[in-house]
Amino acid sequence: MPSQAADVIVHELTRLEHHLMEAVQSHDTGALERLLGREFRLVGRTGRGWSRHDWLEKAAGPYEIDEFAFEEIDVDVYGDTAVLHSRYRQTAQLDGADLSHTFVLTDVWVRRAGRWQLVHRHSTIEPNE
């Protein structure tokens, strides 16, 4: 049975996942600067990696999210590290390309000085789509 403290952390991380995508949707680079760790890296379905700088640049303008929803989020906490597995659906475009899919995401968050930051994201299109 998870402890009350663990439940609070799970709730906080779930909220941060939503806050992160709301910041992308609204092009809030200030919030993204705070949420992303300095070593952040996104690896997509092709295996191509995006640096923190590259992803922030896309999130600042060319990545347009019309709507999104997390269909499920599972959180595993290991001290100051957490791994979140989720199914995420969006209607979006990036540089004119349609990115409207359901994705399977694996996010790694690290707590530093009492604050959680996303340090790694792996994203692939839901295989049953």
Give your account of this protein's structure.
- It is a single chain.
- The chain has 129 residues and is α+β, with helices and mostly antiparallel strands.
- The chain has helices spanning 4-25, 29-35, 52-59; strands at 36-43, 49-51, 63-78, 81-94, 97-98, 101-112, 115-125.
- The chain has one domain (4-125): Roll (Nuclear Transport Factor 2, Chain: A), CATH 3.10.450.
- Strands 1, 2, 3, 4, 5, 6 and 7 form a seven-stranded mixed β-sheet that branches.
- The mean pLDDT is 94.
Give a count of the beta strands, DSSP E runs of length 2 or more.
7
Radius of gyration: 14 Å
- Report the span from N to C terminus: 34 Å
Q: Which CATH architecture would you pick?
A: Roll
Mean pLDDT: 94
CATH class: Alpha Beta
Number of domains: 1
DSSP helical segment count: 3
> Which percent bin holds the helix content?
25-40%
| Poorly predicted spans | none
Q: Biggest β-sheet: count, sense, barrel?
A: 7 strands, mixed
Shape estimate: globular
The CATH topology? Nuclear Transport Factor 2, Chain: A
Secondary-structure element string: HHEEHEEEEE
Class based on secondary structure composition and strand pairing: alpha+beta
Instruction: Indicate the proportion of strand residues.
Output: over 45%
